[in-house]
Design brief:
The chain is of the alpha/beta class. It contains 19 helices and 25 strands. The strands form 4 sheets. Strands 3-2-4-1-10-9-11-15 form an 8-stranded antiparallel sheet, covered by helices on one side. A 7-stranded antiparallel sheet has the order 5-6-7-8-12-13-14. A 5-stranded parallel sheet has the order 17-16-18-19-20, with helices on both faces. The protein binds 6-O-phosphono-alpha-D-glucopyranose.
């Protein structure tokens, strides 16, 4: 939520900031702004605009800059409506410092009142302005107009979780950056350095990055980066790491939307995961598990899957697989409920945190809660070096590459594949799966990437279906077993990007409520591939038809029952139930995508949503 960018170096800062914001726009698009120090005018140039980046871009064109340093921001509004005045960067009362912010200042009201008593006037409704005014007041007191010292003194008074980038008029040769539970990375260039909320904004310039840790206050100049830890009150060393993503992965490459491009990348993602995780001897291998961790996994008596949004649906599938293949009890909870639910945990529990970004505020808090209670923590994360990846006892990366579309597709598939492999790995480790059974599972798994390509090739067929139903305002999704989470995920995709109401239900619960909705106008998406509960799904479908409902079915190839009864049918290649969610979700991604496009929605940046939810 909210994207921060900062640049200091030899280039014209404006295009660098604008390009960075473009990459970060998925983090919020309520307003955008930049502040640069113009060397000729010896002053800030501050440009901000309500709405998407395009509005800012138009405005920036009116200005002539001579700037080699600046900060920029794209906003997802928390405190104060989306407006020009609430857009970042914000300046202090003396207008000598500018600040961009991601996160929430929890004691902003108390701080604001204190500052108002000291006659400081506020112009916006944001919590951010409280931060810049507080630092600005401290700045006024420092003898040399030292922004680092001012930030060092003021920041500990601020409660909450946030990241800042700051610039002063008096020392434009330095940028200041601070991180507390919200992501912030420093990009290391030659004769230039960068600050950003995530690495995708840095990829056009550098792949060398420093991930800041909590309470790090960085002093960034053209030539170097120094980090002071407010936790240890000392200068610390943070080593740069090389990022393996490349910029073309973060571009649309001819597709009209990132979502569509990312859907088409799914077979490659799966191939890549299997290549990385399956050894020549047909065993499962996780390169990043620390020594001793597998030993700890052998002692585990219970597993929790904790995550948000789409990752939660992956957790539901993973949890079924863990129970089936390890016979360990496995509970699944959304992070926000887990963290406040006072979970009963001990050293015998394993808490698996599933997250694409590795920065989701509730999942991070859940991780900290689990660690504090002594449980073993394992993060299943896409973004290498993210906070959750670093703080968990162990991490397994999902290797989906950068995902830009707000509606998660390839990251979900990668989470499913990784969690299934984890279930098989644990099963083997705990001697619940024999070598021969593992070999059979791996053999079937290896067919999935090609089967996935096949489903994608036929995806166009869903256009006709989408055309029939795109104007409906209510959709019901039903599934059982491993495909109950698919029903939830299909419904989530549709509502996220088309704004139609969609509800996912366990098909067995249909008679306990949703059946009342069914009439000749109600599309019901029934996920009914081969599975032990297939017959039960067919009964549900009959019940829907008996009430004149519209059945859009997802079934396994050659299913003649479905051919007879479904109004619209989409077939997936045959596979065993445990792998089916990887294939059944693809038609649902297509359906959501097409319905959204036909409704003229902004597929990659749906209203009110943000890709990375770093506030509660
Ligand atoms: C947001 C995104 C979803 C994502 C969820 C959890 O809601 O729009 O796509 O599933 O956050 O994010 P995470 O990064 O933790 O997977």
């Amino acid at each position: 939520m909210c994207g921060i960018i900062g640049y200091i170096g030899y280039r014209n800062a404006v295009p660098v900031l604008m390009q960075g914001l473009e990459q970060l726009e998925y983090r919020g698009y309520d307003s955008a702004g930049i502040a640069c120090y113009d060397h000729k005018k010896a002053d800030f140039i501050l440009v901000k605009e309500k709405g998407k980046l395009a509005a800012l871009r138009e405005k920036v064109g009116d200005f002539c800059f001579d700037a080699h340093v600046g900060i920029g921001h794209t906003r997802w509004a928390t405190h104060g409506e989306p407006s020009r005045v609430n857009a970042h960067p914000h300046t202090d009362a003396s207008e000598r410092i500018a600040l961009v912010h991601n996160g929430i200042i929890e004691n902003y009201d108390t701080l604001k009142k204190e500052l108002q008593r000291k006659k400081i006037r506020f112009v916006s409704q944001t919590d951010t302005e409280v931060g810049v005014q507080l630092i600005g007041r401290q700045y006024g007191k420092t003898p040399q107009k030292d922004l680092f010292e001012a930030a060092k003194e003021a920041i500990p008074k601020i409660h909450g979780y946030f990241a800042f980038a700051l610039l002063s008029k008096d020392h434009p040769e330095t940028l200041i950056a601070y991180k507390r539970s919200n992501p912030l990375v420093i990009g290391i260039g030659q004769g230039e350095n960068f600050v950003a909320s995530d690495v995708t904004a840095l990829l056009p310039y550098t792949r060398q990055v420093v991930y800041l840790e909590d309470d790090d206050l960085a002093v960034v100049t053209r030539k170097d980066v120094r980090v002071f830890s407010l936790k240890s009150h000392s200068w610390v060393r943070r080593s740069p790491v090389t990022v393996h993503w490349n910029i073309s992965q973060a571009r649309k490459q001819g597709y009209p939307h990132f979502m569509l491009k990312e859907m088409h990348e799914q077979p490659e993602v799966l191939k890549n995961i299997l290549k990385k995780r399956i050894t020549k001897k047909e065993d499962i291998f996780f390169d990043t598990l620390p020594r001793g961790f597998p030993g700890r996994l052998k002692q585990i008596e219970q597993v929790y899957m904790v995550s948000c949004g789409t990752a939660h649906h992956a957790g539901l599938v993973g949890s079924l697989a863990i129970e089936q293949y390890t016979r360990l009890p496995c509970r699944t909870q959304v992070s926000s409920e887990f963290r406040y639910g006072n979970p009963i945990l001990s050293r015998k529990d394993l808490v698996v945190l599933i997250t694409q970004s590795g920065e989701t505020a509730d999942t991070l808090a859940a991780l900290r809660e689990a660690k504090a209670k002594g449980a073993a923590t394992l993060a299943v994360v896409n973004v290498v070096g993210s906070t959750i990846a670093r703080e968990a006892d162990a991490v397994i990366y999902t290797h989906a590459g950068p995902e830009i579309g707000v509606a998660s597709t390839k990251a979900y598939i990668a989470q499913l594949a990784t969690l299934l492999l984890l279930a098989f790995y644990l099963g083997k480790l705990r001697k619940k799966i024999q070598t021969s059974q593992l070999k059979r599972l791996i053999k079937d798994f290896k067919k999935i990437p090609d089967q996935c390509s096949k489903v994608l090739k036929e995806g166009k067929r869903f256009e006709a279906c989408a055309k029939k139903y795109f104007s409906r305002r209510n959709f019901l999704y039903l599934g059982r077993g491993y495909n109950y989470p698919t029903a939830l995920e299909g419904a989530l995709k549709l509502k996220e990007i088309s704004y139609a109401h969609a509800h996912g239900y366990a098909a067995g619960e249909m008679k306990h409520g949703p059946i009342a909705l069914i009439d000749h106008e109600q599309p019901v998406i029934c996920i009914a591939p081969d599975s032990p509960t297939y017959d039960k799904m067919i009964s549900n479908i009959q019940e829907i038809k008996a009430r004149d409902g519209i059945v859009v079915a997802i079934g396994s190839q050659g299913d003649q029952n479905l051919e007879k009864i479904a109004d619209d049918l989409f077939m997936i290649p045959k596979t065993i139930e445990v792998f089916s969610p990887i294939l059944t979700v693809i038609p649902l991604q297509f359906l959501a995508y097409r319905v959204a496009v036909l409704n003229g929605r902004d597929v990659d940046q749906p209203r009110n949503l943000a890709k990375s939810v770093t506030v509660e």
